[in-house]
Structure formats: structure tokens, C-alpha cells
Design a protein that fits this description.
Helices cover 73% and strands 0% of the residues. It has 546 residues and is mainly α. Helix 5 runs antiparallel to helix 6 and helix 5 runs antiparallel to helix 9. The chain is globular, with a radius of gyration of 26 Å. The C terminus is likely disordered. The longest helix is centred in the last third of the chain and has 30 residues.
């Protein structure tokens, strides 16, 4: 499927332009790190750490706003200094270092439960921790603490250079601006149960602990391969289906990257400039194609690591079987931890994302149309949440296309659940055009549309329809007299004389209501009042989608 989509990928070169900015960040940080390394007499592992941080930062900066960039200038140098100290600790006291690494990584993920800013701070903290796993064992210096300050300086140079490049690229329109914090975060009802950030932190802790144990026991000299794979598979896992697909892509892509790099390396020699050029070229391709499929990114990153080993004089061809086995073990550990330790069910993730997307649509319909800012904010929230819903349901597209070695009835149930979720996201995606047209009509004539009584009744009906579907998604009983999941009878067309803006609004509301009808059929399980039927079993739709 990704191979068929490749010729049509990135038709406007949006991802390629962002990749160019990210690689400019990497190359600039690499040049500064080379200069600092020569002047300060550091080891080459300091350069590798700087490049790893700059590579990840180049992609993360696409979603950072001004406040986040200021935070990154303060957080990232401190985290880089801590990563350098952690490297020394792991080399001198492996057991203690492993425990500190697990706690630091899990703690950075646990910060996500405290909001958007804390989540991005935690993401920045993980960058130097990943760099700890990249440098081949035995190549880094085991010296004291003199490198800590220089690591902070290199990280500060990388973040400052990346911030400048991203600011210029956004100002000239080379890349798009990130959504505002008000769009990404919105107040909502508190969810019951353990927060998702806590679940993901515990899953990561379990995966890394098992990966350190298996890596130290099976491959003492190459334990980092198991740990790095387990981290990449478990990080950012939105659901069980997501981590399963990511683990499969990681294994397939990393195996392909290892085989290809093993066939190329060995012919350049240690410290070869050609290897450095190949590393940056492969990293560019992987960064660009990451949005197409995670398999491309996994394969390119693994090829980069193999080339890096070749640059250090360690032939990856001799370790091909070891690397493939370590990658497979790490992927299995990551998937197992995400499935057994407080798992996030796919059905729950899809339902939650769908409900929040409907909430943004209801916000637009119930907003004061005299207030243009509130209308545009609601539209931006709706578009952002549709994109997040597409990301959540992306693994279902792959799982729905795979055959199952079970009975046809089991395959049919899985197909029904996955296709239901995909129909839901397709219906909400088709609402994006009418929502945009409605917003433009409101902006052009806010007073006329806001004060039109027939139009007001129509949008109340559509909002009630959306609210009924949202209750059905959450399996909440409707209050007495509230409309059910089916839409109410549509009012007839208004009398003669509606202006062009009113005609556009009526047409877009009808289009939105049509897509809501599709959602009502997908989430057809009606809410049941607990008092009337307390022993209702778990709906089969949830089992199918999980």
C-alpha cells in the first residue's frame, strides 16, 4: 500500500520543504559541533549526540510555537548535559545507569498528563536520552564531567540555529505555521480511569526494563539495539493496533535497512567522508518519507546506524544476524508491554477522538456567529481534531487489509469493526469542506446569518443531531425528551429571498447533516439507561474495533 502511494506522495512538496529545513538544521548543528570538538578536544561521540538532537529537533519544531521555542532553549541544553552524565554513569555503573535511564524516559512521558506544554517539554527531554543509545559501545570516552558543559553548549547552538531557520521558513511561506495552543488544547470533561500519559509511561518503563534485561543477557556488547527498538516501538503508541503496526514496520524496515547497508558498507574504510555524506543523504530520505510510512523511517534510521558503525570501523556485516535478532526481540518486547501493561484499546481511542471531533463541530454550530474569532477558532479545532482522528485510525487501514488465519466469521467481525471506524473518519473528513464554506459565509455576513430565525433553527437541529451521536459514542443515556441518535425531521426550504450567504449556510448545514447520518449508522448502538437495564453486556462493536 505505501509503495502504491509513493508516486502520489507529497504533491505540493510540503513535506519535502519541511525536510529541507530540518536537514539545514542538522547540517548547521553538525558544522558547529565539528568546530567545538576541534577547539575543545572532545570525542566524536559529542558530535553524534549533537546530530541526533538536531535531527529530532528539526522535525519536532514543526509544531512548536513561540513559547515552546523559548522553553526548548532552556530545557534542551540541560537535558543534553544530563544525557552526557547518564552516558558516563552507564559506562561506569551499568545497573544504576540502566535504572536511571528507565526512570528518566518514563518520567518524561508521564509529563504528558499535565498538558500540552509539559508534554512538549517531556519530548525535548527524550532527545538526549535517545542519543545515549545511538553511539556504538566502546567508542565513546569514559572520561569525567568535562564534556557536560560542552554538550549543553552544542545543544543550545542546535536549538538556536533550528529556531532561526524555522522562523525564517515560516515567515517566507516555505513551511506552514503550527496550530495555536488554543487550537490544540481545549477544556473538556475529565476522563475517568488512569490518564493516558500515566499508562504510556508505565508501558515504556516495563518495555525498557525488559529490553535492558534481555539485551544485557543476550548481547552484552550490543544491548543498545534491543533497548532502542523497544523504545521506538513503544513511544507514542496511541492504541494496541498502533503499536502492533509500528512494531511490524519497525522490524521489516529495520531488517531491510540493515541488509542494504550491510551490502554497501565495508568498502569505504573507517573515518571515510563518503560514509558521512551517505549518512546525511539516507537521513534526508527517511525524514521526507516518514509521513508516508513508518517503515521507510525505520529502514533509513537503521541504515544510518549501520553506516555509523562502519565509520567507527566496526563492520556491520559481521553483526548482521545479531542486529536482526536484537531488533526482533526489541520489537516483541515493545508490543508485549503495550498490550499487557494497562493497554489502550483501539476502540476506546477511536471513540474518544471521534467524540472530541464532534465536540468541535458542535462548538462551531453553537457559537455566537457575531464573534468571528470564536467561529474561526472552532473551525481550526475541528480541522486539527480530524487530522488527529486520521492518525489514530491509520493502523486500522493496514489491519483491515491483512488476512487472518481464523474462521471467516472472525475475519468478518474484524472487517466490520475496522471499516466502521474508517467510515466514521471519512464522514468527518468530508465535513471539512462544508465547515470551511460555512465559516466563510459567516465571516462575510455574520449579522445576517446569526439573526436569521430559520437558519438558527436548522443549525440547532444539526447540533442536536451531533450531540445525540456523541452520546451514543460515549454510551450515555439521553436526558428525558432529548432527540435520539437519528436526526429530527428536516425543515423545509426557507421562503423566497435568502441571500447568497444564507443559501451557502443552508447547503453546508445539509451536507454536514448528511455526514452525521453516516456517523449515526456507524455508532448505531443506542445509549441505555442503567436503571432500565443494568445488565447490558459490552456492545459487540467495541470488541470488533479493538
Amino acid at each position: 500500500m505505501p509503495l502504491r502511494r509513493t508516486p502520489r506522495f507529497d504533491p505540493t512538496w510540503m513535506h519535502l520543504r519541511a525536510t529541507a529545513v530540518a536537514m539545514a538544521t542538522v547540517l548547521g548543528a553538525y558544522g558547529c559541533a565539528l568546530l567545538i570538538e576541534q577547539k575543545a578536544g572532545l570525542h566524536v561521540d559529542s558530535i553524534v549526540q549533537c546530530v541526533v538532537i538536531a535531527s529530532a529537533l528539526g522535525r519536532i519544531q514543526r509544531v512548536l510555537d513561540r513559547t515552546d521555542r523559548l522553553l526548548s532553549c532552556a530545557v534542551l541544553p540541560c537535558a543534553a548535559a544530563g544525557g552526557t552524565e547518564l552516558t558516563t554513569l552507564i559506562q561506569r555503573h551499568p545497573q544504576v545507569g540502566d535504572v536511571v535511564f528507565v526512570l528518566a524516559m518514563a518520567g518524561s512521558i508521564w509529563l504528558r498528563r499535565f498538558g500540552l506544554r509539559a508534554a512538549r517539554v517531556g519530548t525535548l527531554v527524550t532527545l538526549p536520552l535517545v542519543a545515549v543509545l545511538v553511539v556504538p559501545g566502546g567508542t565513546g570516552a569514559v572520561g569525567g564531567h568535562e564534556r557536560t558543559g560542552w554538550a549543553a553548549v552544542m545543544a543550545l547552538v542546535a536549538v538556536a540555529w533550528g529556531t532561526l531557520l524555522m522562523w525564517v521558513a515560516q515567515r517566507i511561506g516555505l513551511v506552514g505555521r503550527p496550530p495555536a495552543a488554543q487550537v490544540v488544547t481545549a477544556a473538556g470533561p475529565a476522563r475517568r480511569g488512569i490518564p493516558a500519559g500515566t499508562r504510556m509511561a508505565l508501558q515504556m518503563a516495563a518495555a525498557l526494563a525488559a529490553a535492558f534485561t534481555a539485551g544485557r543477557m543476550l548481547w552484552p556488547d550490543h544491548w543498545a539495539w534491543v533497548v532502542l527498538t523497544a523504545f521506538l516501538v513503544s513511544s507514542g503508541a496511541r492504541s494496541r493496533a498502533d503499536v502492533l503496526v509500528k512494531g511490524a514496520w519497525r522490524t521489516v524496515g529495520a531488517s531491510a535497512g540493515t541488509v542494504v547497508a550491510g551490502a554497501v558498507t565495508g568498502s569505504f574504510g573507517p573515518r571515510s567522508d563518503t560514509v558521512v555524506v551517505l549518512i546525511f543523504a539516507v537521513l534526508t530520505v527517511g525524514t521526507w518519507l516518514r509521513e508516508l510510512s513508518y517503515a521507510y523511517w525505520a529502514g533509513c534510521v537503521t541504515a544510518v546506524l549501520s553506516l555509523l558503525y562502519d565509520w567507527f570501523g566496526q563492520s556491520p556485516g559481521d553483526l548482521l544476524r545479531t542486529r536482526l535478532a536484537a531488533i526482533a526481540v526489541g520489537a516483541v518486547i515493545g508490543v508485549t508491554a503495550s498490550w499487557l501493561v494497562l493497554p489502550i484499546r483501539t476502540s476506546s481511542a477511536v471513540r474518544a477522538r471521534t467524540a472530541t471531533t464532534l465536540a468541535a463541530l458542535i462548538e462551531l454550530l453553537e457559537a455566537d456567529w457575531h464573534d468571528g474569532r470564536a467561529v474561526h477558532l472552532a473551525r481550526a479545532r475541528f480541522r486539527h481534531r480530524v487530522e488527529q482522528l486520521e492518525v489514530t485510525t491509520a493502523p486500522l487501514r493496514i489491519l483491515a487489509a491483512l488476512p487472518l488465519p481464523h474462521a471467516p466469521s472472525a475475519r468478518r467481525r474484524r472487517r466490520i469493526g475496522a471499516l466502521g471506524a474508517l467510515r466514521a473518519v471519512a464522514a468527518l473528513r468530508r465535513c471539512a469542506g462544508p465547515v470551511g464554506d460555512l465559516t466563510a459565509a459567516i465571516t462575510s455576513a455574520p449579522d445576517t446569518l446569526a439573526d436569521d430565525p430559520s437558519l438558527g433553527r436548522r443549525r440547532e437541529e444539526v447540533a442536536a443531531h451531533a450531540l445525540a451521536i456523541r452520546r451514543a459514542i460515549g454510551r450515555r443515556p439521553a436526558p428525558q425528551g432529548a432527540p435520539g441518535p437519528n436526526p429530527p425531521a428536516k425543515a423545509g426550504p426557507p421562503g423566497p429571498g435568502p441571500g447568497p450567504e444564507a443559501a451557502v449556510a443552508i447547503r453546508t448545514l445539509a451536507a454536514i447533516d448528511t455526514q452525521l447520518g453516516i456517523l449515526a449508522r456507524v455508532f448505531r448502538q443506542p445509549p441505555v439507561t442503567p436503571a432500565s437495564n443494568p445488565a447490558v453486556p459490552t456492545p459487540r462493536f467495541e470488541k470488533r474495533m479493538s
